Amino acid sequence: MIQRTALAAVFVSGLIVCTIFDQDLWRWLKAAESVGERDWYRLLRIAGYLPTWVVAAGVVIGASGGRLIRRGIALAGSAAVAGLMAEILKLVIARSRPGEDGQYHYRGLFSGFVDGSNLGMPSSHAAVAFGAAFAASRLFPGAGYVLVPVAAGCGLTRLLMGAHFTSDVWVAAWVGYLAARVCVPSSVRTRAWSAARLPA
């Protein structure tokens, strides 16, 4: 109970900070569109593409000779659930993308179910990336040290394009965390990669 309260406090505090500085950060982080042609940008951006994690899950399952099928499914499933949760939240919150002025534009709660176009809160791509990263960190100890920063990088690509506010990415990260907690229960977690007993 105490842990959940602490996590909720961190989420709310972070959201408040992001909201205060959203417009300034949007103007500061927005880069030239040419950045989208850089290889590092593409690498980070594709972390928010669901098929990336379907392929990764296939690698996990194939490399283990089918021994890690539950973990492979959990990895891809967490990314998918996070993306779905983000899409639903977009329809509920109904806040438009920054646009050209970098200002908040709310359409009214649940109005996204009437018109779901151009909504930004939270970022679906960042949610997918964080859902996979947090799931991997629960499934394979040490993986999070690599993949969570990659997921954060995916969120950064959305900011560099001016497509989202920082708060969109912050909420997406927590959506990904919740998805991982749901899709990777304690019964599926492993203490060490060596426990997989990969074939030589």
Mean pLDDT: 90
Total of DSSP H or I helical runs spanning 4+ residues: 7
Structural domain count: 1
Which regions have little confidence, pLDDT < 50, spanning 5+ residues? 191-200
The CATH topology comes to: Vanadium-containing Chloroperoxidase, domain 1
Q: Structural class of the secondary elements?
A: mainly alpha
Instruction: State the name of the first-level CATH class.
Output: Mainly Alpha
**Main sheet properties:** none
Taken in chain order, the helices and strands follow as HHHHHHH
Fraction of helical residues: 55-70%
Query: From the coordinates shown, what is the CATH architecture?
Result: Up-down Bundle
How far is the N terminus from the C terminus?
Answer: 44 Å
How would you portray this structure in words?
This protein is mainly α and 200 residues long. Helices cover 62% and strands 0% of the residues. It contains 7 helices and no strands. The protein has helices at 2-29, 39-45, 50-63, 69-93, 124-139, 144-160, 166-183. Mean pLDDT is 90; it is low at 191-200.
